[in-house]
Specification:
The protein is built from 11 helices and 9 strands. The protein is of the alpha/beta class and 274 residues long. The protein has a single domain, classed as Alpha-Beta Barrel (TIM Barrel), CATH 3.20.20.190. Strands 1, 2, 3, 4, 5, 6, 7, 8 and 9 form a 9-stranded mixed β-sheet that branches. A hairpin with a 5-residue loop joins strand 2 and strand 3.
Length: 274
């Protein structure tokens, strides 16, 4: 009905669903071109024309939020230590680039504040911020304050797998849009009730769910939620997701995805010249 509010209306206007458009969401930055969750990966994501950058946030032992996907720092830094048991200072001096390529030696694990400062200097890109594990409202307050301080609140979506984490985001920042991540078919039971209770703007499923369950994206979209599946890196996956009715694709290959989107999914009309 005209004038009826939809969950996706909670998104900033620049991030709301648009017919015929699938937004490009760089997974951990452009992680096919640079080491994931580092400033070089974010630079590459902007160069690739990404609409949003997806990042992972964990809490170091000194209470400082840092950008790291895994519980352990081993895979991306060579430091055999749990993030939660390691200080942000120790993580910040580790080499987070050499594992990817020698040319990235010296890339660092950034703090959330450093990323927000970088984001403030790149106002045209949105953010999909995943809080790893279970977060309390008290823990969530710091990152939310950082987003506000750097002027990023109006282009950021907060998300998590754990209901209590999304609840904490709701309680601390009811004005900021939230999304729930789901990755198993059993998570779909009662999903819309959970989304409504959380006041979510979107639901972001593992990529196989909207492809293997073609009605899922349509069901969510008809209920008014945005849908960003993850992590889709091949043209056949992009096409299947597009047909399923998603609003964005979280991908490690934002550059190739944008090329595919422009040429194959939403081709531009050929302009006739004299």
């Amino acid at each position: 009905m005209p004038g009826t509010s939809r969950p996706s209306d909670r998104l900033p206007e620049s991030l709301r669903p648009e017919p015929g458009r699938i937004r490009t969401i760089a997974h951990r930055g452009d992680s096919s071109s640079a080491p994931e969750n580092t400033i070089p990966a974010f630079d590459a994501a902007v160069a690739a024309g990404s609409d949003l950058i997806e990042i992972d946030v964990r809490i170091a032992s000194d209470g400082v939020p840092v950008i790291m996907h895994d519980r352990s720092a081993l895979r991306t830094t060579g430091l055999d230590a749990e993030v939660a048991l390691t200080s942000s200072t120790t993580l910040g001096i580790a080499d987070a680039g050499s594992w990817f390529a020698a040319g990235f030696a010296g890339a660092r694990v950034p703090t959330f504040d450093e990323v927000a400062e970088w984001g403030a200097a790149h106002p045209d890109v949105g953010w999909l911020v995943e809080f790893k594990g279970s977060w309390t409202a008290g823990q969530m307050a710091g990152p939310v304050a950082t987003l506000r301080h750097h002027g990023m609140a109006g282009r950021t979506i907060l998300q998590g797998f754990e209901t209590e984490t999304v609840e904490a985001a709701r309680d601390v920042a009811p004005d900021l849009p939230r999304a729930l991540l789901v990755h198993r078919p059993e998570h779909l039971h009662g999903l819309q009730d959970r989304l409504e209770e959380l006041g979510a703007a979107g639901c972001n499923p593992i990529g196989q769910l909207p492809i293997e369950m073609p009605g899922l994206a349509t069901q969510l979209r008809e209920a008014g939620y945005s849908v960003y599946p993850w992590t889709l890196d091949e043209p056949d996956e992009w096409g299947a997701a597009g047909v399923a009715g998603v609003d964005g694709v979280i991908t490690n290959r934002p550059g190739p995805f944008r090329t595919w989107h422009n040429l194959r999914w939403n081709p531009r009309p050929v302009e006739l010249t004299a």
